[in-house]
Structures are given as structure tokens and as C-alpha cells.
């Protein structure tokens, strides 16, 4: 034996021992020394030589280890271990013949082949598996299986002692049932199917790229459930970037209802969010940050919570060297079968990849913004690609506009002449002193907010934003949309917060800083308030909300810091793309109607970087009217910029349309919806789709590269096909223009007005009377045609009106020629007799119920529906308490959330518990638990009282 090989064997001995194997010489053989025994230099049949190590589990042979000197390449040694596996003497007991588990190792590098796999293929492993694991894999193999000859499909008929695990997982992946389509968006369905195909092909790594807001976590949970239930996965790890994203992921797991059993996933399988360094041995899913996982591998008894909340991007600036990883028997390499890595564009490829590669597991990456390193780490196995444009067409994302604010100091810097006094502020203590300049102080724009703070530069940007907000950015609105401001540093954020409060003339609650240095309340609580409550309207952060955090009502992203990383910019921009139901948006922004776009307010020029145009807005011609764009299509234009801009406009319009208007579009177009037309236009602009069409069009091989001219021909064909419904149907173009005009208002920012008189006059009362009479006549005329009126007026006994019923009624009264609104009708009744009208209603759909009941004389007073719901709720609570039925504080909070939801939506369904605010408290599963399984009874009671 050479000295290098002897050194390798010492390392192998040490690794086997750490993994639970008792290492022995043949002369000291004692198969009862432990569950796993590794015997050195074991003689095999004649012609087969000696196995460097023969592995025994529970007294029977299971595998071999071939030792080689450090630096040896190992794939060429596989034939030698195959020979050993068939050379076991007949007198030696074995679990399987040939031996199924084959290792080749230098003590530095180890490769492993499991001949029980359907298609045995060696893979690199960090070290050796534990003997108990190999024994469990052996016990779980179907009796009909033959090692190395194509295994039988996974079966639920289990032998005594059967333990699920990765050996069975690879067989189970070949027999997964079809993915049910219910509950999945098309992109999610495609992602799950493609991932399962990749796993079935035994590809060790896979990458899923899906646009921000398209449900990557939901997609992953769907896959995880199927891997556990149908494929035999024993334990799955879901890795997140930081602690608050882990809690967000846990809430999604809690709210996930399994499509087959219709039960919460967490009722079927334990899901553990790691908040300590102890892993629950019965957890089927673990959610953790990679930094906490590293701490556990190091054997640390605890981990600093603050470090768990620090993103990998921040940690990268603190840790310069890759983290060292050593074997931990409490967390062996086979502990996880599959690892899902959320936000996998992060720096897992340099500093942290050892933590991931420690485990003998499939790796699945989830990201909206992969980098070159991301593609490389996942072996360029991109199983799903779903970009921003397609997500907009599918109504999974909203598109964006860019509003640019330029100031002189921002772009050029400035000079302060000698003789002036300047403030000097200590970076850490923020203590101030004053100093007179002896010479001119000149600084460039890059020094702003680092070496130089120019309050008027910040003030000028904020004042311009304030002054243009309701005239140009969101014309016609009166409430500041939910706005997220990105600052350069915590100190810069502090300056911005103070100036925003001053310029908008608002208090502390209006604008708040949310950074890692925020104290008093946890940043997560502030994020929750920003997401769910009316206040704050504006949040200022550095990078805490840059990735992953879900804030659906967000409509403005204001950049007051430059960003050098394309990936980080896409993540920051992605905070605004998420869609939200109109009612949920109005719950926090009362004068909003629907989220059809968001606006990037760029105060630093970040959007002008050419390399940041991977997912540009569909809006390429912002100054061209929709009418002219439609005219260009009618005249045969196939200009990609025209088509892209029109697709974006149609996607926005479709988000504003109700069912009636959408049905009109289908009728006029010949069966296509605006969403389907938009999706076709976006698909026609996809370069990959154009290349594929060019190959088909010109008969090229699947891997051939079409010429530019061939792609141009294919592109024009695809665009002509996509816009054909618009180009060939003038009536459809006319309808689109009619619908667009009904959704827009012209804002006159030029004419000046003055007050001549205030108060109602006789003509106003006449108009109000005519409107009321028309409304009441409409109710009488359509009482047997419109479902909501049938139910509210008693024609449809035994059924309560639903949210959709009321929405249908609202669409009917808003349709031309009436175009009435709830607010307008309410005002008319108040004009006629203010004594019968109580309060001014918020803009909620359910107030239409109050109007109908008052108009048909079922109520004597016209009061906002939410107010009546609250009155009925308090009366019900008092009645329950009088009967001796007391509610806990936790139950009372659930009841109040249910009350508020019914007030805004008229009903509550099982699906509503998957959304805010219920999901923040644990969703349906937590509600069931809070009411000891009597949730349905409580809901039935409350609905009978509140929605009466």
C-alpha cells in the first residue's frame, strides 16, 4: 500500500466512524459490535481480489468501499467496485446479491452508487451514509426488485420495517399520479409537471424561474406535498433568505389545502419553522435559513435571532471566506431528501454552497431573477421559465410605468462656497456641530448621502413627488397610494422619513422606516401594518423589503438609491408587481378602484441602465393613444413596440372590466377574451417562441440556430396571427375604445375655479328625485332578473346573496346608459331627506345592499352596511354572553376579523381563510383549532345574523 493510499484510508476510517460504522480488521471481526460494521481488506471469491472495506448492516453484507489515493479520479473505479459487489463468497450472508451499495473514496472525495435505484448512477456525496439508513433502504425495497436491473415502480404495499427514504424516492418519482389542475394557475401547473419530470430523470438539480408574484412558494408546496405523499420523500427542507420570509412561508404552508383530501397540509404532515437549533424528528418539512442550518451543522446549541433576520446579501459583506462544513452525526447527509431553495439567486454559490452540498438530496431552486451563477449552480437545468410579460398577460402580475425625477444636485453634485457654515454630523452618534468653510467644498453626485447630506436634494425629490402625485403619477386620486422608498443607508432612510412627514404635513404613522435597525417594534410587525392597514402610507427601507416580502397593495416604488446589481434591481422592482383583489386594495386605499399597474418613481436614474432591461415594461410608446395604436394594428402594423404597448394597455383594461363587459368582448371578438388576446400578443413577442416558429417554418433541426431573416419572417407571422381579432374586427376596436373611455376621466389641470355658493338648491333636489325614482323603477323592473334583487326582495327564499351577486348588480347599474354609482345614489337620498340617512359610506360594494333595502322600504334608515354589521355583531355577542357562552380573547379576534370580512364582502368562504388577514393568524387550520372544531357552526350562526 502506498503512503498516499494509507493516508486516504486514515481519512476514510475517520469518516466511517463519524457516520456510525464500527471499523475493524478481519482478524478482529465482531459483527455484533454495532448496527454497522466496516471490515478492512475483506477477501472475495477467486478472481475478485480484496474489498478495501466490506460493509455489514445487522450482520449481513450490504456494500463495499474502494479506497484510492488523494487526487485519484473516481468514475474509473466504478467497474472495480461493481466487480467486488458480485464477488461476495457464498458463505457470507448478504441482504442482496449483488451488493447494492457501492462507494469509491479518496478520503477527500467520495462517490456513491445505489444499485437499488431504477437507473443506478454514481453521485458525489459529502461522506458515507449511516448504517441505519442503508438498512432502512434495504427494508423498503419491494420483494420483486432486482438490484441494478430496472426497479419495479414504487408501491404503497410495505414490508415489515419499511422506512421511506431517498432510495425509495427515486422509484416513487417514476410512478407519480397526474398533477390535478384544480387550484393551480397554468404556469404553476407547468412548473410542477416539469419539475417532476426532471426529478424522475434523476437530475440532481433543477431551477424554477417564475416572475415575482406568480406563486413560486405555492408551486413549491404543491410539489412538496406530492413528493411526500406519492413519491415517498421522508423529509424536505425549504430554505429561505431570512427569518421573516420563513414565517411568511410557514403561513403559506399552514394555509395550503391539499387538492385530494381537502384538508390543511399541516393536519397531515408536521411542518416545522426552525426557530431553535433543535429539529423535530417527526417533521416532514423543515423551514429554515441557511445561516441557521449552518449553525446546526456546527453543533451550536442556539443561534442569534438577529442573525436569522439578516439577509444573505448583508452577511456576504461580513463573511469573506466560504463557511467550513464538517460532518454532524445529528444531521447526517441523508437527513433531507429534497431541498427547495427560495430566492436562490442569493450568494449560495460561493460562501454557502458547502452547506447545500453537504446533503445527499435533490436541490430545487426558486427565483424570479437568476444570475449566470444561478444557472451554473443548477447545471443549466431550467425546468420552468415564466417572465414578467407573460405574467402580465395572464393577470398574475401588473405592468409598470416609469416616472423619472431629475434634480441638478442628484446628477451633478454641488459646490458650497467658502465662508458658509455647514453642519457636521457624526456617522454613528449623529451628534451635530457647525463649522465655517475656509475653502470651497465641491462634491460629486456619488458622494451624496455617504460623505455629503444635502437635505434640499432629498426635499426637492419628495416635494416634486408630492406635487405630481395626484396630477401626473396617479391623476384623480386623493389618497397617497401605498409607497415603498428605497434608501442608501439607515441614516439616509432616517433623513427621508423626516422630510416626507414634513412635506406631506402628516404625523409619524403616515411614513415609517422599516430597516434592521428599527427598534421598539419588530420590523415584521411594521411590514404587516404596511401591508394590511391604512397607515402607514409610505415605508422607507434599505434592503429589508427588497426581496420576497409580499405587499400586494403597493402601487409606487420610489428609488432614492442606485443599484448596481441587475438581480437586486429586479427583486426590488418586483415588490410592486403583485396583483390584489379590488376589494382588498380598497380596504387599505379607499379611493383606489383596481390595481392595474404600479409606478417606479426613479430619482437616481436606475431604470436607465441598459443592462437592467431584462424585463422591461410592456409600455414602449407612452405618448401614443390607445386609439392610435388600434388604428396602427388595423392598418397592418407589426411593429413589436406597438404590439407590446397595446398588449400592456389591454391587460390593464381587462383588470378593470366586470363580467358583463368581459362577456361583451367575447361576443364581439368571436369567443376570445381580452386576456387571451393579450397572452397571444405577448407570446408572439417572445424571442424563444419566435426561434421555435422559425425552425418549424423553415424545416430546421431542433438544435439549429435560425438566421435573423428567418426569425424576422416568423416574428411577423406570429404577430399577424396574434393581432388578427383586433385587425379584422372594427367592432371590437370600437368596443375597446368605448370600454376604455368609460374607465377613464380627463383631468383638467389648467382651468382655475372659485366658489360662488355652497349648499343644495331646488334644481339639485329635482335631479336627486329623478335619480331616486329611476333607481327604484330599475329595481322593480329587474327584481326577477338579477339574482341579488331576487334574494334581497324575497323572491328567492332560502338563499343569501353572495359577493358575486352584489357585484353583478353593481355592474348592471354602472353599465351605460345609467352609469350610477353607490356614492351618487346615496348622495341623492341624502339630498332629499338627510334625516333618514346616517353617515357617509366608505367605498365598499356591500353598501349597495343598504341602498336596495332602503329604496324598497325594508329599512327606515339608510346606514352603511358595515355599520349595520357591527351593530348586529355586538348584539349577537351580548346575546351569547347572556346565555353564558363566553369567548376567549383569541376567539374574539377571529370573530372580529370574520365580522369585518362579511361587512366588506357580504359572505365568507373557506378560500377566504387563505388570504389576509386570516392567513397571518394561521388560516383555516388555526381557526378550526381556535373554536375546537366548531368553526362551521360559528360561521353559519354569524352569517345568519350579520348578512340578514
Q: Overview of this structure, please?
A:
The protein has about 950 residues and is an alpha/beta fold. The protein has seven domains: about 5-150, tt1808, chain A (Alpha-Beta Complex); about 175-390, Rossmann fold, CATH 3.40.50.300; about 400-405 and about 455-610, P-loop containing nucleotide triphosphate hydrolases (Rossmann fold), CATH 3.40.50; about 415-445, no CATH class; about 625-745, no CATH class; about 760-865, no CATH class; about 870-945. Helix content is about 40%, strand content about 15%. The protein has 36 helices and 24 strands. Strands 1-2-3-4-5-6-7 form a seven-stranded mixed β-sheet, with helices on both faces. Strands 10-11-9-12-13-8-14 form a seven-stranded parallel β-sheet. β3 and β4 (about 60-65) form a beta hairpin. α22 (about 640-655) runs antiparallel to α24 (about 675-685). The longest helix has 21 residues, at about 760-780. It is globular and about 110 Å long. The relative contact order is 0.05. The model is unreliable at about 145-165 and about 745-760 (pLDDT under 50).
Write the layout of secondary structure elements.
Elements: H1 3-18, E1 22-25, E2 36-43, E3 50-57, E4 60-67, H2 78-86, E5 101-105, E6 110-114, E7 123-125, H3 131-139, H4 166-172, H5 186-200, E8 205-210, H6 216-229, E9 236-240, H7 243-255, H8 265-268, E10 271-273, E11 285-289, H9 290-297, H10 305-308, H11 312-318, E12 338-342, H12 353-357, E13 362-367, H13 372-377, E14 382-386, H14 388-393, E15 399-404, H15 408-412, E16 414-416, E17 421-425, E18 432-436, E19 441-443, H16 455-473, E20 483-486, H17 490-504, E21 511-513, H18 523-532, E22 538-541, E23 556-559, H19 566-573, H20 582-588, E24 597-602, H21 626-634, H22 640-656, H23 659-669, H24 674-684, H25 687-697, H26 708-727, H27 730-743, H28 762-782, H29 787-792, H30 803-814, H31 822-832, H32 847-855, H33 865-882, H34 889-905, H35 923-930, H36 935-946
Parallel strand pairs: 1-2, 4-5, 8-13, 8-14, 9-11, 9-12, 10-11, 12-13, 15-24, 20-22, 20-23, 21-22, 23-24
Antiparallel strand pairs: 2-3, 3-4, 5-6, 6-7, 16-19, 17-18
